[in-house]
Write a sequence for this structure.
């Protein structure tokens, strides 16, 4: 069983880090004030405001910020300002044993995906494919906050992950499987293949989502997962949205799911709202879930914090 981090409560301290692409200081400050208004204390990593081009600062410095938050006994949650690009470059500089011994809530999506899955694989820590600092603003729908805080601030179990009303999640291949859930952003996961940090899908339930990629690129990425055996190894597949993904050669995202994934005959659920979409379900990476694509349900079977 994976390690559950301690529950987050109002008044707790959140450690803020920038792990990939930099974020404008005005946006950081506005979002931080939103968190403070919610009743949380904020401590800043040394390089939160850094700007080094594509990435905020060096991989070593970004990793140091993360590790300092891990070691700080006052910090209950580590929150990335954003994903962007380059998060995977910090992985060689992390001490996964120290992270295992000091479990914290770590959350994000997009390029944070590779960090979430690596922390589960190498530290046996449940992490959360959920909100980042950029999401703490008045425009964020209540659904997203409800999902987030139910996952990290309650011991509710089991927890059924359901889309908002009028957005249907559908089973394309019927089945019923149980196992740890892994995955996240498709681009980030494919970029890690062939490295020490590539995702382990054997005996796992895999979920994927994507944004701003033409379907020619989605075709390449899904083919790469097939050729690397990742889709054959998994127990079942959950496909989230592909937000703002352009149709190429008359072939849609749904067409690719039907042509590449349905023939695998693994339990397959589609249209889960998570990741880059407007609505964001909170997916606990490493937690045991039940995927029932016959009844169109996804259920987290255990508390994801302690």
């Amino acid at each position: 069983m994976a390690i559950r981090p301690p529950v987050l409560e109002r008044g707790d301290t959140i450690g803020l880090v920038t792990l990939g692409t930099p974020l404008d200081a005005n946006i950081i400050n506005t979002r931080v004030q939103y968190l403070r208004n919610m009743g949380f204390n904020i401590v800043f990593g040394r390089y939160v405001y850094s700007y080094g081009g594509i990435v905020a600062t060096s991989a070593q410095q970004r990793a140091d910020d993360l590790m300092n938050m891990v070691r700080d006994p006052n910090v209950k949650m580590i929150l990335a300002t954003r994903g962007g690009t380059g998060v995977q470059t910090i992985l060689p500089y992390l001490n996964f044993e120290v992270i295992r011994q000091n479990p914290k809530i770590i959350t994000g999506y997009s390029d944070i995906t590779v960090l979430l899955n690596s922390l589960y694989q190498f530290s046996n820590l449940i992490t959360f494919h959920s909100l980042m600092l950029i999401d703490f603003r008045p425009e964020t729908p209540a659904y997203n906050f409800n999902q987030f805080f139910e996952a990290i601030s309650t011991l509710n179990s089991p927890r059924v992950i359901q889309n908002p009303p009028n957005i249907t999640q559908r089973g394309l291949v019927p089945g019923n499987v149980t196992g740890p859930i892994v995955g996240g952003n498709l681009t980030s996961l494919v970029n890690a293949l062939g490295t020490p940090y590539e995702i382990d899908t054997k005996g796992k339930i895999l979920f994927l989502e994507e944004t701003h990629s033409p379907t020619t690129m989605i075709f390449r990425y899904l083919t790469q997962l097939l050729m690397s055996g990742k889709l054959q190894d998994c127990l079942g597949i959950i496909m989230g949205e592909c937000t703002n993904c352009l149709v190429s050669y008359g072939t849609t995202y749904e067409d690719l799911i039907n042509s590449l994934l349905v023939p695998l005959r693994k339990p397959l659920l589609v249209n889960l709202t998570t990741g880059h979409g407007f609505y964001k379900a909170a997916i606990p990476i490493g937690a045991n879930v039940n995927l029932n694509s016959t009844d169109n349900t996804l259920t987290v079977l255990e508390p994801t914090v302690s």
Q: What stands out?
A: The first helix runs from residue 25 to 37. The mean pLDDT is 98.
